[in-house]
Inverse folding.
């Protein structure tokens, strides 16, 4: 094992990018702010500043990939990527299939999002991963810590498929030890904390929320298993199902609203898989963001995003067999989610 | 430039091939042998034939929903194209793309496209790859005047100009965006005049004259490879058929006098006269060439019709390069 490094999210991102640019001279990076470390080491041909033109720049990445490069585009906020949906979801996602396998769209589109506690309001606070995941042809990854940001970005750059890399802005404040050889296989979840009483599945910044809930539950004698999904598309359903078959209970934490969401997909999977369904000892619970544009004012924002308390309450309800407790949070509560 | 006429005759041959292909494709639509739709390139053949006649095999192009002409001019095979627009397994995309998504990467044809303007940044990206690799190739983006109002057009020109990408932007200005005259929706006139604002070369060219288009493309290619960046060519032309061919298509909204005017400027007739005047074609060699192309296309169509439909389970394959279990 190489010497461990202590990196925050952006440092891990930079390190992964430089590592892959070192390994493959076809890797280039484009962002509205030039990546200075890459510029210094690889020059202006491979590290480029681009205008605020999400669709055009994403299209350049698609074309450059189809012509053999491995471009990385930094689109900044996930909501800005909506300007590029043609190139992300109509071109990159479909080109391989439509061309009968001729096109290789080896491009990475990096977005970040603000969420609970960051007071960035509606147009900057949307994880968006479920929007991308709905369209076949793209991979969607969402790291929950700097180490996986490093390992997933490296895997994304190496992938011959287009990958949307969705990062919580909270990772900038998370410092962790990273093995420079760390590489995460796309499509693999991780067990962030082992447990036997209830499974809590989460992605990105919902993972630390779930871990906080698990710590609180442990004080009550409830052993929660926390699954860090890491990849949204394709979901590692095998890991989720195996955990739920063991615990018999599932809480999904999702910083997106519940309609057509990651949480909805996971609940659908475990309840339609016969073996997992038979192992359930309680109905699954979804703890999601409220279905409203994210408000600015801190007390309003706090009311909208799932908290560790919401997650713990839902888990306790499932363990106690209490419907009332299990419906805390937004996704499972028809009375609140209007 | 002195010429023995071989380039000019080969341009004529490609134009005849495109016209003949489109006539058969329209028949397939009207007699309901083919499904979906096709967007005929009839009337615009001089643009693809002229531009592609001056490209190298390793040069790349992106195309539009009206892409059959670009495919054939870049060297794609008519038989696999017919198979694709009939949804058959031997089609270029194994039946997954159809008329609007034909691609042949082996000849540098990066694909037709169902979204107006989408091919522009993709072409610029391929040109960026050529620039990064320094491989001495250029990329052509074919697009219509309807795309000039789209953001992707400006976003592409801005970066291609700034980075001096080896890109040739060929605007096929046929005057119509589906059933709306582009004079009602597009402000800049001439469209090529926009080039000045980006600091790149811009030319208005007669899109119904294949030799004019070939010369414009050759000059643009030389500029690109000399490091002078992109050229915006506005190829003034007219689509001689409806926007898209379907049995139940609405009536053509265009003035019959306008259509008659442009029919008198048919690019194939004009080039035939040019070749005849130059002594490179006579009635006999013309008839022989036309008969040869008719036979070639009939065989290509037979190939397409004989090709089986793909197995249904292939619908679930090929979404990703890598299977993640």
């Amino acid at each position: 094992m190489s010497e461990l490094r202590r990196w925050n999210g952006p440092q891990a991102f930079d390190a992964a990018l430089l590592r892959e640019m070192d390994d493959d001279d076809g890797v280039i990076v484009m962002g509205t702010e030039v990546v200075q470390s890459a510029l210094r080491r690889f020059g202006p041909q491979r590290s480029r500043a681009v205008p605020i033109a999400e669709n055009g720049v994403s299209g350049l990445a698609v074309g450059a990939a189809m012509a053999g490069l491995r471009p990385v585009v930094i689109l900044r906020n996930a909501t800005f990527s909506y300007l590029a949906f043609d190139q992300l979801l109509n071109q990159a996602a479909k080109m391989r299939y439509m061309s009968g396998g001729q096109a290789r769209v080896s491009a990475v589109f990096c977005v970040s999002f603000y969420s609970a506690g960051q007071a960035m309001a509606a147009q900057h606070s949307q994880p968006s991963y479920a929007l991308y995941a709905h369209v076949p042809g793209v991979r969607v990854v969402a790291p929950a810590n700097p180490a996986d940001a490093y390992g997933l970005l490296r895997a994304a750059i190496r992938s011959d498929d287009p990958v949307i890399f969705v990062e919580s802005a909270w990772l900038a404040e998370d410092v962790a030890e990273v093995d420079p050889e760390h590489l995460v296989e796309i499509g693999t979840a991780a067990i962030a904390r082992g447990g036997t009483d209830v499974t809590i599945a989460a992605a990105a910044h919902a993972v630390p929320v779930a871990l906080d809930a698990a710590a609180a539950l442990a004080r009550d004698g409830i052993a929660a298993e926390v699954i860090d999904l890491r990849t949204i598309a394709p979901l590692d359903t095998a890991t989720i199902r195996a955990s739920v078959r063991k615990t018999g209970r599932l809480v999904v934490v999702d910083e997106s609203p519940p309609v057509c969401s990651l949480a909805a997909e996971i609940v659908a999977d475990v309840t339609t898989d016969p073996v997992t369904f038979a192992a359930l000892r309680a109905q699954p619970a979804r703890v999601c963001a409220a279905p409203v544009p994210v408000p600015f004012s801190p007390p309003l924002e706090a009311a909208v995003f799932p908290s560790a308390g919401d997650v713990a309450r839902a888990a306790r309800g499932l363990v106690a067999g209490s419907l009332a407790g299990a419906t805390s949070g937004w996704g499972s509560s028809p009375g609140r989610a209007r | 430039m002195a010429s023995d006429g071989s380039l000019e005759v080969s341009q004529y041959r490609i134009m005849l091939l495109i016209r003949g292909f489109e006539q058969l494709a329209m028949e397939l639509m009207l007699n309901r042998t083919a499904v979906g739709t096709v967007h005929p390139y009839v009337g615009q053949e001089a643009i693809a034939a002229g531009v592609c006649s001056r490209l190298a095999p390793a040069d790349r192009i992106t195309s539009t929903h009206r892409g059959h002409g670009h495919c054939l001019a870049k060297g794609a095979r008519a038989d696999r194209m017919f198979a694709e627009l009939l949804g058959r397994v031997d089609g270029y995309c194994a039946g997954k793309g159809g008329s609007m998504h034909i691609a042949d990467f082996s000849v540098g044809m990066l694909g037709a496209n169902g979204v107006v303007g989408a091919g522009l940044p993709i072409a610029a990206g391929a040109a960026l790859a050529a620039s990064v690799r320094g491989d001495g190739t250029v990329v052509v983006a074919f697009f219509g005047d309807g795309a000039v109002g789209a953001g992707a057009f400006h976003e592409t020109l801005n970066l291609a100009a700034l980075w001096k990408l080896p890109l040739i932007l060929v605007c096929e200005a046929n005057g119509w965006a589906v059933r709306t005259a582009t004079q009602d929706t597009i402000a800049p006139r001439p469209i090529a005049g926009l080039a000045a604002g980006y600091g790149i070369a811009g030319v208005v060219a007669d899109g119904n004259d294949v030799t004019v288009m070939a010369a414009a493309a050759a000059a643009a290619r030389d500029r690109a490879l000399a490091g002078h960046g992109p050229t915006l060519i506005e190829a003034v032309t007219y689509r001689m058929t409806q926007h898209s061919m379907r049995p139940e298509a609405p009536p053509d909204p265009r003035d019959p006098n306008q259509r008659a005017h442009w029919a008198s400027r048919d690019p194939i007739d004009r080039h035939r006269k040019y070749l005849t005047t130059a002594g490179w074609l006579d009635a006999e060699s013309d008839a022989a060439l036309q008969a040869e192309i008719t036979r070639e296309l009939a065989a290509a169509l037979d190939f397409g019709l004989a090709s089986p439909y793909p197995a249904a389970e292939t619908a679930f394959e090929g979404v990703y390069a890598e299977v993640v279990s």
In short: The radius of gyration of chain A is 20 Å. Chain A touches chain B through 49 residues (CB under 8 Å).
